[in-house]
User: What shape does this take?
Amino acid sequence: GADRGSCRRGRRRVSDQFRGLMDDLLPRIVSGPRPYIIAVDGRSGSGKTQLADMLNFSFTAEHFAVRVLHLDSIYPGWDGLAEGTKTWRKISRNLRNGKPASYREWNWHADAPGPKHTINPAQETVIICEGVGAIAGTCDVRIVVKAPDELRYRRAIDRDGDTYRPHWERWAAQEEALLAAYSATYAQADIIYRTA
Assistant: This one.
């Protein structure tokens, strides 16, 4: 009984938080530049992908043309966080300047570059970039998603299984280095979104 009630209260809190986020973002998008670029950043397992999916669903329901770019598809392998962030910085600059931007999707199974993709900014009202390093790009709103470390670890392992377990520390070290390199940018995030 008590556990179920706290779960319900937790869900309601997240729903209220999300509703507040949408109330904040919608007027910005309506009056903002095209495409409107939203960065959803945070450490592994923080809840970035779920938040990006919820934003995508909600903006699509408002009849915006939305594109979600998952940085996982850009990082070139387990040691590629810094390189993937640099690639996103170039992509976001092009998009902000109204130019199409291309990237090679990373094939994690083959551990090699995959197909090339191009984003045409003229076709998108909103671009949501989701991943560690997203707020390092040229963005209109920078959201940092936060959750306690032990919860992040549990979520990441539940999501990716044992394939991620040996890479957790390796990836976490890259996250720490990125957070240090862009510490001023992270300190100036527009919105902190807590998933726990």
Observations:
- The chain has a mean pLDDT of 91.
- Helices lie at 2-31, 48-61, 81-96, 149-160, 168-181, 183-187.
